[in-house]
UniProtKB/TrEMBL annotation, chain A:
Family as reported in the entry's similarity comment: Belongs to the binding-protein-dependent transport system permease family.
Keywords, alphabetical: Amino-acid transport, Cell membrane, Ion transport, Membrane, Nickel, Nickel transport, Transmembrane, Transmembrane helix, Transport
A GO cellular-component term linked to this record: ATP-binding cassette (ABC) transporter complex
Protein name: Amino acid ABC transporter membrane protein 1, PAAT family
Pfam families: BPD_transp_1 (PF00528)
Signal peptide per UniProt: none
Domain ABC transmembrane type-1 residue range list: 16-205
A GO molecular-function annotation: transmembrane transporter activity
The keyword Transmembrane is assigned to this record: yes
Localization: Cell membrane
Gene Ontology terms: biological process: amino acid transport; nickel cation transport
PROSITE patterns, A to Z: ABC_TM1 (PS50928)
UniProtKB/TrEMBL annotation, chain B:
Domain ABC transporter: start-end pairs: 5-252
Protein name in the entry: Amino acid ABC transporter ATP-binding protein, PAAT family
Organism: Salinicoccus halodurans
Chief place of localization: membrane
Family: Belongs to the ABC transporter superfamily.
Keywords: Amino-acid transport, ATP-binding, Cell membrane, Membrane, Nucleotide-binding, Transport
GO molecular function annotation: ABC-type amino acid transporter activity; ATP binding; ATP hydrolysis activity
UniProt topology in membrane: Peripheral membrane protein
Length: 220, 258
């Protein structure tokens, strides 16, 4: 029993790098998307605001798996747009999806910083960019940390969907293992769970830390 | 002497509430003005207009010869709404201290002062630190440079806020009820700093305050704001003792009784 558990883990670890690399890249791009979309949605320009709102609502309003299939199967045929390997398709779909959710975190955190902070910054004659960069964002970031931690864990879980577009991640190897060792199916999936949980541990720890930081140092 | 600030028939409405109904006011360089008046009469609004935190509905504010909210549109002398760049030029002359301090909680008190000097005045870090320390010393916070605002008392916070505004060397300094969020025992230390500034600095100062005795003592001129206009204006003595405006008398009586 213990032997086969270890066996399975070794087998699954072939997919470890795919899962981790997609997670890290997708997480990075979701953060970037979150800031771009979050800030764009607060701009004065109504066109930028409208386009961003459209993006955010579409990607929040539909499921990640449908978006994944769209990018993988539909977009190349319909628009002749090729996003590169399926690895990139996975990364882009996840980044766009979670970027949309997290942009709302960025926006609400910025709005949650006390208006008096902006007014003091205006009184000191900081420019709009300086106000954002030196006064508002540093405080908003602290407010964002816990939610960013939570979403990062969700991104990790979301990466499991990429096995559906033919990527060989942890879940993919779990499926293969089960189909060749049917009796060990439950154990195989238990090991899949454990593996995801182990990868998530540092994230859980980080988001706890984020919550602590968030509790101090903000005027709201 | 030419006034440094002129309000010309300033009106301000918030939605349907017509708060200021034609404010005309000249502030001379180095003049110390106190604004008193009932709650909701628009005292805060008057100084927020000058700090560019609110935009007037109508009228002009001239600062040091420049129209604050309007700028020339082209060569034809027509005026349009001021843009950020124009506002920023005029803002350089004005500083403000707020009722709730509005210190930057993520920065040390030294950095609260240093950041605007480096970012706005383009001062070197070294000079900015030196000037900031001098100013913090002046307001009595020489041992707190590296402390964060959350570790200070209300009185200390307000003194930091004053140092932060002062390092920018404004020509006009605005104070909006800077002691009314403080515990009574901390009011004195803040008033002490204002008194020092009023006595020793030649910048113009506008104080909105409920500290009546203090206002009357430091102000060259007292304005009584009522019904959206400046109902009385004069030296403390004139306003208190010789005005027969019944609403002012009523207002003062309520202060004496409180
Ligand atoms: N941003 C705003 N939106 C709507 N109404 C406002 C706003 N700011 C001020 N007002 C209204 O304008 C009026 C004047 O407000 P202001 O704060 O200038 O009065 P004040 O004389 O400073 O009063 P207080 O002594 O209570 O501080 C009030 O009726 C207030 O409710
Ligand atoms: Mg007020």
């Amino acid at each position: 029993m213990f032997d086969s558990a270890l066996n399975i883990l070794t087998y699954l670890s072939q997919g470890l790098w795919t899962t981790v690399s997609i997670f890290l890249t997708a997480a990075l791009f979701s953060y970037i998307m979150a800031f771009i979309a979050g800030l764009s949605r607060m701009m004065k320009n109504p066109i930028i605001r409208g386009v961003t709102a459209f993006y955010v609502e579409v990607f929040r309003g539909t499921s990640l798996i449908v978006q994944l299939f769209w990018l993988y199967y539909a977009v190349p045929i319909l628009f002749d747009i090729h996003l590169g390997s399926n690895w990139w398709v996975g990364v882009i779909a996840i980044a766009l999806n979670y970027g949309a959710y997290m942009s709302e975190v960025v926006r609400t955190s910025i709005l949650a910083v006390d208006k008096g902070q902006t007014e003091a910054a205006i009184a000191l004659n900081l420019s709009p960019v300086q106000r954002m960069r030196h006064i508002i964002l540093p405080q908003a970031l602290r407010l964002m940390l816990p939610e960013f931690g939570n979403y990062s864990i969700q991104i990790l879980k979301g990466t499991a969907l990429v096995s559906l577009i033919g990527l060989t991640d942890i879940l993919y190897y779990g499926d293969i293992y089960r189909s060749t060792n049917l009796s060990e199916g439950p154990l195989a999936y238990l090991m899949v769970l454990i593996m995801y949980f182990i990868i998530a541990l540092p994230l859980i720890w980080l988001s706890k830390k984020g919550e602590k930081i968030a509790r101090k140092g903000v005027a709201s | 002497m030419e006034p440094i600030v002129q309000y010309k028939d300033i009106h301000k409405s918030f939605g349907d509430t017509h708060v200021l109904k034609g404010i005309n006011l000249d502030i001379r360089p180095s003049e110390k003005i106190a604004i008193i008046g009932p709650s909701g009469s628009g005292k805060t609004t008057i100084i927020r207009l000058l700090m560019t935190l609110e935009e007037p509905t109508d009228g002009d504010i001239i600062v040091d010869g420049t129209n604050l909210w309007k700028m020339e549109a082209g060569g034809d002398g027509k005026m349009k709404k001021a843009n950020e760049k124009h506002l920023s030029k005029v803002r350089n002359e004005i500083g403000m201290v707020f009722q709730h301090f509005n210190l930057f909680p993520h920065k040390t008190i030294l950095d609260n002062c240093v950041t605007p000097l480096v970012q706005v005045r383009k001062m070197s870090k070294k000079d900015a630190v030196e000037l900031s320390r001098q100013m913090l010393d002046r307001v009595g916070l020489n041992d707190k440079y590296e402390a964060y605002p959350s570790h200070l008392s209300g009185g200390q916070k307000q003194r930091v806020a004053m140092a932060r505004a002062l390092v920018m060397k404004p020509k006009i300094m605005l104070f909006d009820e800077v002691t009314s969020a403080l515990d009574p025992e901390l009011v004195g230390e803040v008033l002490e700093v204002i008194r020092d500034l009023a006595d020793n600095e030649d910048m113009a100062m506008v104080l909105v305050t409920h500290e009546m005795d203090f206002a009357l003592e430091v102000a060259d001129r007292v304005l009584f704001l009522d019904g959206g206009v400046i109902a009385e204006s004069g030296t403390a003595d004139e306003v208190i003792n010789t005005s027969d405006n019944p609403r002012l008398q009523d207002f003062l009586r309520r202060f004496r009784d409180a």
